[in-house]
Amino acid sequence: MRRYFNTEGLCKPDKHYMVKLDERLDKIKRLYIDREKYFIINRGRQYGKTTTLRALAEYLKNEYIVISLDFQGIGAEGFADAKSFVKAFIKQFTVAAKRCQEVDDTLLHPILEIVDGYADKNLQELFERLSRICDAVSKPVVMMIDEVDSASNNQVFIDFLAQLRMYYLNRDNRAAFHSVILAGVYDIKNLKLKIRLDEEHKYNSPWNIAAEFSIDMDFSIDQITVMLQEYEDDHQTGMDVSAIAQSIYNYTSGYPYLVSAICKIMDEELSEIGKFWDPADAWTQEGVAEAVKLLLNRQLPLFQSMNRQLAEYPELKQMLSVLLFQGKRISFNVDHPAIELAAMFGYIVNRNGCIQVANRIFEMRLYSFFLSEEELTNAIYDVAQGNKNLYIQNERLDMELVLEKFVQHFKDVYGDHDEKFLEAYGRKLFLLYLKPIINGTGNYYIEAQTRDAKRIDVIVDYRGEQFIIELKIWHGNEYNERGEEQLAEYLDYFHQKKGYLISFNFNKSKRTGIKTINVGDKVIVEAVV
After folding, report:
1. Cβ neighbours of residue 387 under 8 Å, at least 6 residues apart?
2. Is the CB of residue 74 less than 8 Å from the CB of residue 43?
3. Range of the domain at 276
4. Whole-angstrom Cα distance, residue 113 to residue 126?
């Protein structure tokens, strides 16, 4: 069977194109397993946690007995009380242990006695007998438990963690698991995020023995390059492997699922689109942009989870909205509940002490989410929607006309609003105006390096053509001229001769409209609102 890009669950190197995990596995073994650490791999949805655990189990099997469990398989009824949990846990543990050649029914006899009714079905008895098994086997025992946060709003799970902690602290006196790995989205040290507010007694997690897991699980550009080279060796598309790897990384920042999803679309779906029927055309920069557009228009579980969490945590939603539309610099402070949530879900990262949306795909999807909330009620969106065919000539986007009409329509709809309104909503309203014009054919993203309270740059892709637009809050002539020079330099970076500038001007004597400016060999079309 030919290998393919997989986005549905576990990845296997003999079946799927995937990045090499050897370096990551070696680090986990050296820094955590060999040092007898108990820890949690706490990452966002579809971050490769399960794939990493399975690969790690294979990597460790010569030196350790690895017991791999999945708490999602226990089900809600298994967490109803201690007896139910003990029975379900033993069933999973026994099946997993028998996969190891060193373990048989004789060694498992202590816990099988519980199932057969020869001992009490409680956690204390379970762990006493697990200790006997750890003492009897020939190698140190490593226990891995995937999807632990599916159980973390149950008291029995917290009691289970308490037993793990007790045996960890007393392992000099009695046998215990050599290392324990829990994997999930929610940080087990912050169980209050999964427990209702009326259950205060469950807030303190006994998992304070856990080592901090700091290994980067994002794919690097080099890892993506090696994966694409394997694909290229098999398919001979003629792609520029390094350039395509860089382009995919630029959109995803190495988020594992997103990398695989883009590659999967390019491999399997672009051939259905006329201009990409030849793989040589699909595996190009334009092909990457098309794959991203298709990806963003889908209701994927990853995006559905994001929407659900934005609805569930209003403070998270408010923070991201301020970050995206007002360009406010927000310090990365994990003691702030909204920042802690966003980081835990994988939506933001720490960049030079400030929060930043983790990748361009998430940012584009968040913009779409926030703007869609206003599409049905916002007048500026309605105006653009009604005139969108005006801006497309011979399948090319007339960006100068877009700016000209935006100035006109903005004045008609919002001309009597004050400075605070412009500063808070001006840039959001331009993006809302732009959306129906390019929707379905083009896309846009915000250049994170230039976003601040005074300036952001929007990069628009439309049928392979790029438009660089700077959105700027007016702060005097000198600042404005400096902004024009910055935009000219930015155009150099993108190898563009023409750029666009929208100035939201609070000066009462301002002259709104469009003008053309030459800065060196660059042409800048400036719109003053």
Report:
1. 405
2. no
3. 221-296
4. 10
Helix (H, G, I), strand (E, B) or coil at 525: strand
Give the domain-ending residue among 172, 202, 232: 202
* Statement to judge: residues 529 and 479 lie in one domain: yes
Distance in angstroms (rounded) separating the CA atoms of residues 29 and 43 = 19
Return the closest-CA partner of residue 322 out of 344, 308, 339, 307. Answer: 339
Backbone angles phi, psi at 226, to 5 degrees: -60, -45
Q: Long-range contacts made by residues 472-475, C-beta under 8 angstroms, separation at least 24?
A: 472/501, 472/502, 472/503, 472/504, 473/422, 473/423, 473/426, 473/503, 473/504, 474/503, 474/504, 474/505, 474/506, 474/507, 474/510
Helical axes 285-296 vs 360-372, angle rounded to 10°: 40
Q: Are the beta carbons of 83 and 122 closer than 8 angstroms?
A: yes
Q: Treating both helix axes as pointing N-terminal to C-terminal, what angle do 314-326 and 419-438 enclose, rounded to 10 degrees?
A: 90
CA–CA dist 347, 362 (Å, integer): 7
- Please give the span between the terminal C-alpha atoms of the chain, in angstroms, as a whole number: 59
- How high is the mean pLDDT of the chain? 87
SS in 3 state form for 142-201?
EEEEECHHHCCCCHHHHHHHHHHHHHHHCCCCCCCCCEEEEEECCCHHHHHHCCCCCCHH
CA–CA gap between residue 122 and residue 141 (Å, rounded): 22
Query: pTM score, two decimals?
Result: 0.86
Domain closes at, from 202, 229, 259? 202
Task: Determine if residue 46 is left, alpha or beta; phi over 0 gives left, psi from -120 to 50 gives alpha, anything else beta.
Answer: left
Could you give the CA distance from residue 457 to residue 472 in angstroms, rounded to a whole number?
9
Is the sign of the CA dihedral 128, 130, 133, 134 positive or negative? Answer: negative
Number of domains in the chain: 3
User: Tokens for 231?
Assistant: 């694909």
Mean per-residue pLDDT, 74-87: 88
Rounded Cα gap, residues 373 and 363, in angstroms:
16
> Is there a contact between 18 and 51 (Cβ–Cβ < 8 Å)?
yes
Q: What sign does the CA torsion over 120, 149, 147, 50 have?
A: negative
Read off the tokens for 501.
């500038």
Four-CA torsion 254, 258, 260, 263, nearest 10 degrees: -100
Q: What is the pLDDT of residue 450?
A: 54
What is the Cα–Cα distance from 156 to 181, expressed in whole angstroms? Answer: 18
Nearest Cα to Cα of residue 241 among 226, 262, 256 = 226
Asked if 406 contacts 527 with a C-beta cutoff of 8 angstroms, the reply is yes
pLDDT per residue as tens digits for the range 239-249: 999 999 999 99
Strongest mean pLDDT among 26-30, 72-76, 463-467: 26-30
Q: Which residues pair with 460 in a beta bridge?
A: 444, 467
- 317 found inside a domain: no
